[in-house]
Automatic annotation (TrEMBL), chains A, B, C, D, E, F:
<keyword id="KW-0547">Nucleotide-binding</keyword>
<dbReference type="InterPro" id="IPR027417">
    <property type="entry name" value="P-loop_NTPase"/>
</dbReference>
<keyword id="KW-0479">Metal-binding</keyword>
<dbReference type="GO" id="GO:0046872">
    <property type="term" value="F:metal ion binding"/>
</dbReference>
<dbReference type="GO" id="GO:0005524">
    <property type="term" value="F:ATP binding"/>
</dbReference>
<dbReference type="InterPro" id="IPR003959">
    <property type="entry name" value="ATPase_AAA_core"/>
</dbReference>
<dbReference type="GO" id="GO:0043001">
    <property type="term" value="P:Golgi to plasma membrane protein transport"/>
</dbReference>
<protein>
    <recommendedName>
        <fullName>Vesicle-fusing ATPase</fullName>
        <ecNumber>3.6.4.6</ecNumber>
    </recommendedName>
</protein>
<keyword id="KW-0460">Magnesium</keyword>
<dbReference type="InterPro" id="IPR003593">
    <property type="entry name" value="AAA+_ATPase"/>
</dbReference>
<dbReference type="GO" id="GO:0006891">
    <property type="term" value="P:intra-Golgi vesicle-mediated transport"/>
</dbReference>
<dbReference type="GO" id="GO:0016887">
    <property type="term" value="F:ATP hydrolysis activity"/>
</dbReference>
<feature type="domain" description="AAA+ ATPase">
    <location>
        <begin position="14"/>
        <end position="152"/>
    </location>
</feature>
<keyword id="KW-0067">ATP-binding</keyword>
<keyword id="KW-0813">Transport</keyword>
<dbReference type="Pfam" id="PF00004">
    <property type="entry name" value="AAA"/>
</dbReference>
<dbReference type="GO" id="GO:0005795">
    <property type="term" value="C:Golgi stack"/>
</dbReference>
Length: 248, 248, 248, 248, 248, 248
């Protein structure tokens, strides 16, 4: 990852901040995590709402500040601010959010680490419009858009899963596409990453396939995953139409 | 129930989350409860506002988190989040709701159980539009719509109740239909479930029939339920028109 | 009262909830109270804002919950939630109201009493539109509209009061009608109830008649109530036009 | 005052509540106070914001409730709620006001005194529109409008003050009238009351006359009040035009 | 000052309240202070936000009430409420302000001092529209508008400052006028006051002249103020155009 | 810096307040800091949100007041209020901000230092519209606009960086210009300052150049900064188009 290189060799910019934005499930967290894992930095830390459930705003703030201050002690550090809208307790109605936490981020994203220390901050969000109106987008030095899966991508995933008859794959991909269900990290990733995808596919695609694999009367899933049987494409259609996708 | 099977056999998706949405009295809670009862999972828990009356937002949060953490200890668990809008203390005016609880749910619905543990979360709501604007719908992997009772369904219920003269059943069903009173879990349920319905019919339908059974001067209800007498269809009409159904 | 009968004989519906709505002074509280008095239930309790002046929201909540829990101990109970908008501290500007109390009511109105206990809940309100937007109307199983007094009803009341000359009664009723002052519980009540009305007539009608009875120079009221004198219809007109009825 | 008589002789209405509304300075407080003074009731109490400056909402509530409970102990009582909008801490921007106090008043205005005790509550306000939207107007049994001073009234006051030359009185009244300054309790009051008015005229009229009486170079006021000199009408005009009457 | 006289000789109006309103820097505070200084009243007190920075609303309230209660002890007192919008913590966005303090002022401005004590209250504000919507303007008995400086006034000031060449004064005044910079207490003040103005001219005018006096390369200011040199009019123009006057 | 001179020699204006406003990264903080450093004043202090992360509003207030009170003790002081919108915890949604801090600034910006003490206050902001609606702009005696970098400025910077081939500099500057990326302190600064700029260029320009310097496969950066190689202009274009600049 080039950003990591930049932080490593950087002389003029001890602080590199980068925002990954894209719709839900497009692979932002996976991308940020793999940057952290693939780097050989001493300090890599994910800041996520999962580990702060039920804490007060000010405790969350204190935890976030603590992570930055720990990072300032290492020569090369990465901080991942995962799902920033969730860190901010954002909800569209109102909208409501924690201004205490948003002010903290606005300041931390601009505060330079001490001399000799370099820091890469990666943020992820699926609410880029909201972050922009807070001025948080502008506080990041760069913003990358993580695109969603194309129909061609979906077909490729279905082929790899190998649970449909060859002739059904096109129709299945088409049906999924119409459901507008697929949100996915696309093309620009390297092959190593695509092979990962087979093990942990998109939550929703995976779930739909799994539901279909059980068959109309249940129990067929083992046969299908072992390759002895294929998913009945009509049963797959039924499941798709059962699942109400409440639209905006 | 297929979702239960999926959770049981699942390898890729340790967390299955499913939202049942439909109008008041359509049978969502009954459906969720029967899934829980019919499963043979070690841990089945209903989270409902009834057991948390008057608690502070943060105590409610803590209780909900506790239920999830208990579930993480069993290999196969079901958590029913009943009437999510009530858990969120939602009221349309404003609207007002607890953002603390909504943030907690948003995180819990995405947090994976520890390795080897599988969890099915079923939510119910009659305010799907509100949950959508909170982003809670999207946080569930699938959403099912629980439809309301059709006129044909109502007729079938009245036949089973056997309190009207045969010739009056059509008119009674018609009258009810015009009142737009019937909200009901429909067709796709199995027979075992329909027989249940006779013992505990829809609250409102049941109440109207019960009121009519007492007759214009009271006291006739025993005779009617024992089958010796039938409900006077005109008295039934009177009761329907008395009951003011304030419309939106 | 039929609702009372229903609760008594009920097998399927241990919880009957009924909302009386109508404009101010239409006799909702009187109606609810007389149902309570006329029943022979062991537990009859009025929950009203009068006994909770100045309490905090949470104390009010606790008191309301306490009443329900006490009721669950009797086999047959009636709870009257009088002037629900006042319990909710409702005011149209904003609007403002206690969501804590409204959530409590929403849950209590649906929570079933323990097995073998039957409960009738009667609510009264003159702000049915507000209760509807809270979802409280829908939480009641039935809603009755308590109508206002017609001109014919007013005339009947004036005749019974016997303070006007026979020829003036029509004009007096007409004048009152134009003032749009009369709000009253009407026709469908039984005779026993109408005789009550003579002792405690509508607050406003009563007050106007009383003011008129004092005469232009005061002091004549005793003569009028003792029947020796009649109210001067012109003086009655003067009083009606003096009293500013600020219109919406 | 007839209301007082009514409370005294009343049998059916132990609680009489009456709202005096009119623009600022129209004499509402004076009217309410004189009713209290002229009555021979044992308990007469004014509830006013003046004696509760800086108190918390709940302390104010407690004080108001205390006054009512003290009144319930006397057989005949009068409570004056002066400047209700000020008691409610009302301000048009927002609007803001104390809902705690407004709920307290809404309940107290309807709560009947114990048997055998009669209570007259007189409220005053110059924000009748606001009180109406709170439902407080409707909570009073009657509302009287206190009208403002007419040009003829003003002239009469100026004649009584006797500080202008006879020929100037018309012009002075005219000038005042154009300034739209005069807000005053009018005609329907008795002579006894008008004679009072000479001692304590309207604050603003009084002030203007006083300013004019000092003359262009000051010091002439004694001569004018002693009748030796008259106010120079042109100087009076100057003062009127100096005083900026910021219009709405 | 005539208001002072009025308070002194007043018999009928023990409380005189007067609001000075005008745009920022028009001399309101100076005018109010000079009234206080020139009076020979025993008690003269300025209530200003400067001495209450960071205090809570209720402490500010308590301080203001204290000043009034101290004033009630002197026979003749003046209280200056300087920059009322600042006392109220007013900000146009929202708008936000302290209702606690505004209610306190509304009551204090109408509360009469004890018998025999006379009080003059002078308020100043540059947000008269805001005060009006609070009802505070109406609570003052009179409101004076303090006008801004005319071009002629500005010229007169520049002449007195004597830092421009005679021929440049017109152009300088013109340039200032176009900048719409001058806000000033005008004409109606007496000469004694104008001579004051030379020592402490308007903050902004003073500052501009001072900046110009330093010359393009700095250091010339002493020469200019000692009269040995005049300000280069072109340099003055440069400074005027540099200073960005962000317009509404 | 002339403002510094003015404060030094000032007799009439012991308090000079000056606001620097311009878009993000235009060099406001740098300009303010260099004024402070270049002055020989005893007391120079920067008040910035960075040193107050997570503090409560009132603690921030207290710290700000403390700085002013310390300044009042020195004969010549400079206080830099950096990023005032951040001090105010401003966020555009709502908008929200600390009124406590804004009131404190409004008062401090007008409060005169004690006799004999001179104070220069420099504020910076990139939200001048917001500050204006708070009345904070008006509270400063002058406002300077810090302009953004022109295309010519950018070219000059690129020439000094010497990382592009001579023929590519025009195209690179053009490409940057189209990205609307460059916000910069412009022309009116002296040469001494421009030479500084080479060492610490604009954060964003610097970052882009650094990213490009690494080359398509990484690792070339050293060669480029040592001058052995030039940046491939096409790779520079790629980077520019990768970086999503979410527009308003
Ligand atoms: N290119 C990829 N290769 C392999 N797995 C992928 C790829 N992209 C996404 N995934 C998988 O898809 C799933 C969803 O991705 P991820 O959670 O990173 O999305 P997200 O954008 O962070 O979603 P959210 O907005 O809900 O946080 C993950 O399980 C992830 O492992
Ligand atoms: N298919 C069915 N068979 C038997 N009983 C049913 C069926 N559907 C609904 N019922 C009964 O109807 C009543 C209302 O159903 P339930 O309470 O589950 O509805 P709900 O959708 O959860 O309503 P709410 O929105 O008010 O929570 C219950 O008493 C339930 O037992
Ligand atoms: N049919 C009736 N017979 C006798 N008295 C009646 C009747 N209807 C109303 N009243 C009397 O009229 C008065 C007003 O009725 P009540 O207080 O019950 O009205 P309400 O609808 O509850 O008014 P609110 O909305 O103000 O609470 C009461 O004194 C009641 O006794
Ligand atoms: N008819 C009257 N006779 C004698 N004095 C009167 C009369 N009407 C008003 N006044 C005097 O005018 C003054 C203003 O009247 P008052 O304070 O009662 O008005 P208000 O309507 O209560 O004003 P506010 O709305 O400001 O409270 C008082 O000093 C009162 O004594
Ligand atoms: N007529 C005058 N003669 C002498 N000095 C004056 C005159 N008018 C104003 N000044 C001076 O102008 C300056 C600004 O006046 P002042 O502070 O009283 O204005 P203000 O209206 O109170 O402003 P703000 O709205 O900012 O409070 C003061 O220094 C004051 O001394
Ligand atoms: N004329 C200049 N000479 C040298 N360096 C400059 C110049 N102008 C700006 N810089 C540099 O550009 C960078 C951005 O400037 P600075 O932080 O002062 O901008 P700012 O306007 O305060 O931005 P923000 O609005 O984000 O606070 C700094 O690193 C600063 O050193
Ligand atoms: Mg993610
Ligand atoms: Mg349910
Ligand atoms: Mg009632
Ligand atoms: Mg009054
Ligand atoms: Mg001032
Ligand atoms: Mg800056």
């Amino acid at each position: 990852m080039l950003l990591v290189e930049q932080v490593k060799v950087s002389k003029g910019s001890p602080l590199v901040t980068c925002l990954l934005e894209g719709s839900g499930g497009s692979g932002k967290t996976a991308m940020a995590a793999s940057i952290g894992i693939d780097s050989d930095f001493a300090f890599v830390k994910i800041v996520s709402a999962e580990s702060m459930i039920g804490l007060s705003e000010s405790s969350k703030c204190a935890q976030i500040v603590k992570v930055f201050e720990d990072a300032y002690k290492s020569q090369l550090s990465i901080i991942i601010l995962d799902d920033i809208e969730r860190l901010l307790e954002y909800v569209a109605i109102g909208p409501r959010f924690s201004n205490l936490i948003s002010q903290t981020l606005l300041v931390l994203l601009k505060r330079l680490p001490p001399k000799g220390k370099n820091l890469l901050v990666i943020g992820t969000t699926s609410e880029v419009g909201f972050l922009e109106s807070l001025g948080i987008c502008e506080a990041f030095s760069v913003t990358y858009h993580v695109p969603t899966l194309t129909k061609a991508d979906a077909k490729r995933v279905l082929q790899l899963l190998n649970v449909f008859a060859k002739d059904d794959i096109d129709s299945a991909a088409e049906a999924l596409d119409e459901c507008d269900l697929l949100v996915y990290a696309s093309a620009s990733w390297d092959d190593h990453c695509i092979s990962h995808m087979l093990q942990t596919p998109l939550k929703k695609l995976y779930m739909l396939v799994e539901m279909a694999a059980q068959g109309a009367r249940g129990g067929s899933s083992e046969a299908i995953y072992s390759g002895k049987q294929k998913i009945d494409i009509n049963h797959f259609y039924d499941i798709l139409s059962d699942v109400v996708l409440v639209s905006r």
